[in-house]
Amino acid sequence: MNNSRLEELNLYIKEHKKVPLPELCSKFSISLSTLRRDLKKLEETGSIQKIYGGVESKSQRQLTPLSTRIDINYSGKFKIARTAASFITNGDVIFLDSGSTVGSMSQFLGRLDNLTVVTNNIMVIEKVIRMPKIQLITLSGLYNRNTFSFVGDEVPLMLKRYNLSKAFMGTTGFSPSSGITHSTHLEAGVKRCAVDIAQTVILLADHLKFDAFAPYTYCSLDDIDRLYTDLPLADSYVNLCQQHHTEVFICN
């Protein structure tokens, strides 16, 4: 099995969503029998599925409204949020990203007396505004009802004013080929800015986010200092995190 070809094949299917078998044979200069062996391997990973006359990607995710996402794997997200919040210390200036998992962190911040929270996440704003010991800085812009967050070109400009000690980031999907991704252009721009300016970048991603991707890559694993997730990683991800010096925390 040619692993390099397998990865390129997987990425090509993801990018084109649905692909006829003859197109794949021509693109990769391989026989139909070789292609079928490669596709069987990819099908076993769950990244593709067979359709009549071809294959389609199972991994690309569209943006699900946050009101729906909150209840998906609630227990896993709660554990991730609680464990990640324990990494916050007095004196920190933190960015809390949009998303249901990062939004859940706000309920664990009341123990801190000297903390600055910078956020565009309305879930965080609604909780932290009731915590008088925490300094809250909100980033305003166009309100995205699907993500309960403020977005727009002006949001990164506001964010650049602040020196962030830690940025806690969410993601729509994370894969070796696509990196850390999100579904909307404006939201990805805010995330990219936070990653660029923070001293330490922490990714919160439950097991459902792995081997999935969205249209916009906002950073790579090289940018992630810590990864918090709810289930043990597959060996391929363990090796990947080791290669990029990303610390992994399993929250169970």
How would you describe what is shown here?
It is a single chain. This protein has 252 residues and is of the alpha/beta class. It is built from ten helices and 15 strands. It has helices at 3-16, 21-28, 32-45, 66-69, 74-85, 100-104, 122-128, 154-159, 185-197, 235-243, and strands spanning 18-20, 48-51, 54-57, 93-96, 115-119, 134-138, 142-144, 149-151, 166-169, 173-175, 179-182, 200-204, 216-219, 226-229, 247-250. The strands form four sheets. Strands 6-5-4-9-12-14-15 form a seven-stranded parallel sheet, sandwiched between helices. β4, α6 (100-104) and β5 form a beta-alpha-beta unit. It is elongated and about 65 Å long.
Which helices and strands, and how do they pair?
Elements: H1 3-16, E1 18-20, H2 21-28, H3 32-45, E2 48-51, E3 54-57, H4 66-69, H5 74-85, E4 93-96, H6 100-104, E5 115-119, H7 122-128, E6 134-138, E7 142-144, E8 149-151, H8 154-159, E9 166-169, E10 173-175, E11 179-182, H9 185-197, E12 200-204, E13 216-219, E14 226-229, H10 235-243, E15 247-250
Parallel strand pairs: 4-5, 4-9, 5-6, 9-12, 12-14, 14-15
Antiparallel strand pairs: 1-3, 2-3, 7-8, 10-11, 11-13
